[in-house]
Amino acid sequence: MDAKCVNCNMRAEFNIEENKITCKRCKLEIDYDDYIEQMKEKAATLADDFQSSWNRRGF
Ligand SMILES: [Zn+2]
Hints:
Bound molecules: zinc ion
Mean pLDDT: 90
Number of strands: 4
Order of helices and strands: EEEEH
């Protein structure tokens, strides 16, 4: 199963049997739960960035 690497944003692999995300490109290997947590944090950070740049433009 495909997943997106939280580290390099390339295609990573979700190993269902081991419940792990592995990325061949940057050698990332994390548990699925950690992966979800990091994805959430990334999304929150992106939302914050968007919000602050939006505010700077004065809209
Ligand atoms: Zn990666």
